[in-house]
Amino acid sequence: MAAVRFFVLQKPMTKKERYERFIAYFQQAMPEANTELHYANPFQLLCAVMLSAQCTDKRVNMVTPALFEAFPTPQAMAEATKDEVLYYVKSVSYPNSKAEHLVKMAQMLMEQHGGEVPGDFDALIALPGVGRKTANVMLSVAWGEARMAVDTHVFRVSHRLGLVARTADTPFKVERELVKNIPADDIPRAHHWLLLHGRYVCTSRRPHCERCGLSAFCPSSAVHPSSTRGGNGTQP
Ligand code: SF4
């Protein structure tokens, strides 16, 4: 007699449930989450974030102590030449343009903001070398605002976890979806959760699903039996 097989149909997880699982996991696993960049004030943070574009935080942390000692204030950096700044940042990626942006950014701080880093999105993105992502990092890290900076890690992990739609194919679309679905109080930490998870666990080339605490509900998990591998791994 032929064996009778029973299939238990699992209800697909709703987006709300997916976000709840994601937040609950990190609230427990990583209650404190912050930038790995070293800084002592908003000006130093802005310099470090600008230098970190397309570069590792580790490399940036190697150059900033000497840079900040040579140019401790916006005024000191505004009075420097590009080549003087370049001497300190030559080992980061795109050193020429970053050195130029640092000097011009410091000059604008002196000319238009009294030597202070503005805590306003529009004023931040008007600074040379500062884009949407950098401005969001500044507002979130320095001032605790509910801003989601979307870098390559945040973009990739959000897609792999199914937190955002496949159609969210730009950093701005991903930012909008994450901000809509994550409670405002959790947004500053959620940026670091996604970033650090992407940096150390859900890495670009080979995600470490075997040691990932999210694999039970991740639609891209390589280890969970109900996963659909690669289901939402869109790259920016
Ligand atoms: S289960 Fe794998 S693909 Fe999913 S978030 Fe974890 S490491 Fe990334």
Description:
By secondary structure, this protein is mainly alpha-helical. Among the domains are: 42-142, Hypothetical protein, domain 2 (Endonuclease III, domain 1), CATH 1.10.340.30; 148-211, Helix-hairpin-Helix base-excision DNA repair enzymes (C-terminal) (Endonuclease Iii, domain 2). Helix content is 51%, strand content 0%. It contains 11 helices and no strands. It has helices at residues 15-29, 42-51, 57-70, 74-78, 82-89, 95-112, 121-125, 132-142, 152-160, 171-181, 187-200. It binds iron/sulfur cluster.
Q: What multimeric state do the chains show?
A: single chain
Q: What is the CATH first-level class name of the domain at 42-142? A: Mainly Alpha
List the uncertain runs.
227-236
Report the average pLDDT across residues. Answer: 92
The fraction of residues in strands falls at under 5%
Question: What share of residues is helical?
Answer: 40-55%
Category from helices, strands and their pairing: mainly alpha
Envelope shape: elongated
Secondary-structure arrangement, i.e. CATH architecture of the domain at 42-142: Orthogonal Bundle
Count of DSSP strands: 0
Q: Rg to the nearest angstrom?
A: 21 Å
- N- to C-terminal distance: 53 Å
What is bound: which ligands?
A: iron/sulfur cluster
| Topology-level CATH name of the domain at 42-142 | Endonuclease III, domain 1
Count of DSSP H/I helices: 11
CATH superfamily of the domain at 42-142: Hypothetical protein, domain 2
Task: Give a short account of the largest sheet.
Answer: none
Q: Order of SSEs, N→C?
A: HHHHHHHHHHH
